[in-house]
Amino acid sequence: MLHPGLRDSWAEYEKTVGAEAAEDVERFKAAIYRERFPHLFPPPLFDGAFVAELTADAQSLLRLLYSLPDRIFDGNVAAWMEFQGLPGDERDLLSSLLSERNLLVARQFARPDFLLTAEGPRLVEVNVSAPLGGLNTHDPYVRQFRRSGYHDHLLRAGFPVSAPDMTSVWGAALRQFARVRPETGRPVLYEAIANPEDINSGRTAFEQLVGENGYDYANGLVQSLDVTDAGVFLDGRRIHAIFTMYTWKEAREFVPPALTRALADADAAGLVDFVAPPTYALFDHKSNLELLSSPEFAGFFSEPERRLIRRYVPETFRLTAANAERVVGEKDRLVLKPASEYGGRGILFGDQMSPGEWAGAVRAAVASGEGHVCQERLAELWRYPGPDGREYHVVLGPLVFAGEYGGTLVRWTDVESRNLLINVRNGAEAGALLSA
Predict the structure, then answer these.
(1) Is pLDDT above 80 for 29?
(2) Which listed residue, 110, 218, 275, 384, has the most CB atoms within 10 A of its CB?
């Protein structure tokens, strides 16, 4: 996976420049600093052929995911929601938002997450939503890397290091469905949050992303917007696009369904671009991995598609009252995950718990009615030999906008920490995938 000619490149850089290498690290981390969001530098340098193959396969897996409602449920979204076990109030809201445009917008922004194992990358979840982790990380990381002395050293050694321009790929995806513009001047994009306690520490980077794609920027609570027959306004200022920087869980907790419907209606009337209505939650649900990985549904896929699925998708299935005791008995080979959560919340590893703790957690999950999946435990994780002498576990999250590859969020965590949740919220360090 790593570029074979660059595994010792940082050590060679240190030999060449001496103490300046440590200064390079400090400059990098100071320039890209975000509160409670650590970044690792220097980064691993991946082989270009590996990156090309992984990102092409990620795009193919997303196409399979997006085909599920038609392929398996013959376009019956109500049956799909029943399979996912969504409660009635959520089904009612999502059903009221089903339209060709809303389903298109729902599929514009995605990030499948691949855990690197000794046998290669394995797909542990697929994030389909507008507020993806990585939007505020990828381009700032890449741009600062290109200012580093280490980057210059690699160029002099004949190794150009590359990464996509995420800003332009994201902007192209946005422009595919954005329609609303003022008669003069730049349109205004409103970064909407739902939780009043959300500090949104990445706001500066997102403001730059928005500005480079032709929008003026505003932000605040989605509940502060005034939806009228003339458009959507904030304190009298016209808003032309609303970017929902909140998750489906936050929408359910903080946003009145009537407001979500009003924004969707304003979008349908051409008064605002609503990015994105929560129809994305149907594609984001972790039970979709059962549709891909279960032998019960294998007949819906061609043999080349089944080979792709077998290569990447670990066994995943819904936790139900009917299979709960089997799950209790298979403690050491399973991971329990909430089906609609994010940020590593609520994930439990059976082999890290006592039999009593695991049994209690499984039965509580069934009783909650909130929807959980079980996934095959991927025990033999790949170890990245970091230049600091430590080893790291790594997750790669390719960002795919409107089907186009826009770069990869990389997260890594020190093996010695025994932290199996490789997520920034749980202490992982972040960066961008760089290939040579």
Answers:
(1) yes
(2) 110
Q: What is the pLDDT of residues 200-242, one digit of tens each?
A: 655 789 999 999 999 999 999 999 999 999 999 999 999 999 9
Q: Dump pLDDT digits (tens) for 268-327.
A: 999 999 999 999 999 999 999 999 999 999 999 999 999 999 999 999 999 999 999 999
Secondary structure string (H, E, C) spanning 20-48: HHHHHHHHHHHHCCECCECECCCCCEECH
Partners of 162 in the beta sheet?
435
Query: Are residues 128 and 107 in contact, defined by beta-carbon separation less than 8 angstroms?
Result: yes
**Helix axis angle, 257-268 relative to 88-96, nearest 10°?**
20
User: Hey, what are 360's tokens?
Assistant: 């209690």
Predicted confidence (pLDDT) at residue 243 exceeds the cutoff of 80: yes
In 3-state terms the chain splits into helix, strand, coil percentages (rounded to 5) of 45, 25, 35
Residue 420 Cα distances to 239, 371, 398, 424, angstroms: 42, 22, 20, 12
- d(C-alpha 37, C-alpha 138), whole Å: 13
What's the CA gap between 132 and 126, in Å, rounded? 11
Residue with tokens 């193919």: 60
Query: What are the Cα distances from residue 287, in Å, to 41, 203, 281, 321?
Result: 36, 32, 11, 15
Rounded CA gap, 260 and 277, in Å? 8
Q: Which residues contact 391 (CB under 8 A, 6 or more apart)?
A: 383, 384, 385, 414, 415, 416
Residue with tokens 């422009």: 175
Q: Residue count of the chain, please give it.
A: 436
Chain mean position to CA 194? 19
Which one-letter DSSP state was computed for residue 381? B
Separation CA 151–CA 142 (nearest Å)? 10
Closest among 252, 247, 298 to 276, alpha carbons compared: 247
Q: In the numeric block, which tokens belong to residue 101?
A: 């445009």
C-alpha closest to that of 399 among 114, 48, 198, 47? 114
Report the C-alpha gap between 130 and 190 in whole angstroms.
13
Residue 346, phi then psi, degrees to nearest 5: 75, 5
Nearest to 135 by CA among 422, 427, 424: 424
Instruction: Kindly indicate the confidence band of residue 383, based on its pLDDT and cuts at 50, 70 and 90.
Output: very high
Burial of 409 (0-12, 13-18, 19+ CB in 10 A): buried
Residue 385, token pair as written in the block: 């030999």
Longest dimension (CA), the chain: 66
* Pairwise CA distance, residues 375 & 294, whole Å: 11
